[in-house]
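Assess this today:

___
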Amino acid sequence: MLFSAGTGIGLVFYSVAEPIYHYITPPPMGVTAETVAAANLSMAITFFHWGFHTWALYALVGLGLGFFAFSHGLPLTISSIFHPLIGEKIYGPIGIAIDIFASVATLFGLATSLGLAVSQINAGLNYILGVPINATVQIILIGIITLVVTLSVAGGVYSGIKQLSIITIVLCFFLMAFTFLAGPTLIILNAIPQNIGNYFSQFWNVSFFTETFARTERQNCWTIFYWAWWITWAPVVGMFIARISRGRTVREFIAGVLFAPTLLTFLWFTIFGSSALYMEMFEGAGIAQTIDKNLSTAIYTFFESLRLSGISSITVIILATLFFITSSNSATLVITIITGGGKTNPPTVQRVFWACLQGGVAAALVLGGGLIALQSATLVAGLPLTGILLAMLFSLKKGLDKEYNGIYG
């Protein structure tokens, strides 16, 4: 359910598109496009974007919320994590400002995810039914799904959303198993250790790569966008993690949050990404040509090379829709809790307001420029929250030191 709360939409959208993109357009790091070296680097970069960095951000917020809210009785808000630094001022203007920044950033992070989801759904409908790919269709899709989300949050049917999350994860494992068996199985098995090894061997190179002499916009469109996106989702996923990890030790929490989802993410991208690279390199799958036109169609082109491509494509559409609904519900609940002073059962009007606003922002960004607008909004929203997370790190360290010395509790 961690994936339903945050990164699930991106896993579907970028599972094939990102490795192939880096393969045909590698960063200026001395690697020639469309070579074996480019394929290895593409998987290392993809793992870098989706690996430990992502879940470390979520772990920071989740641990802070769990420690101060559940262990020490403070409100379930982002500002509570700053209690060691500002004390009772978390209840004043400073605390309110922190929670507002977190809520607004989360809103735009969600809008980006929803925009990617409708792009994926629209591309699938075009592939299966010939529905045109344009902003009008995508806004209609946003409106329909936002209505479903609004009705669910208004009725408080969170048990139903939990069931949807379980169905979503089952479909994910079905799609993984199908691709593993129908695709180049031996290649996938060989790629698992190789991709992990490439990730660690290239870790420092890609971590400190800043395009000093290349002077392109690649890092802004990929790595920096990803960091901003993960930062805007940190309050949502962090709160979800905190609530399901109640009663765990810090060591258990860190191990569970950092390693389990990261390894599953690596497995996901290896199954889809390495399969796509193999098909592109040795079977002429034509995925690269698709990416030049539209990133969201890459996964459907990929499934054309496998058996039962129609069923697989329908599954992708259903997955994107379910991720849209579950992610929007999760974010709505978190934002209403934060803006409601930590109350876990906020008023219905407040839930409906945030659900509608999420859909409205996503529609506005899709209408205003599609993926470029979504990425730009995420970068802008993530900037102020970056400073908050850095301060949060020091505050949490101070709080844990006090706990160790017997000052807390």
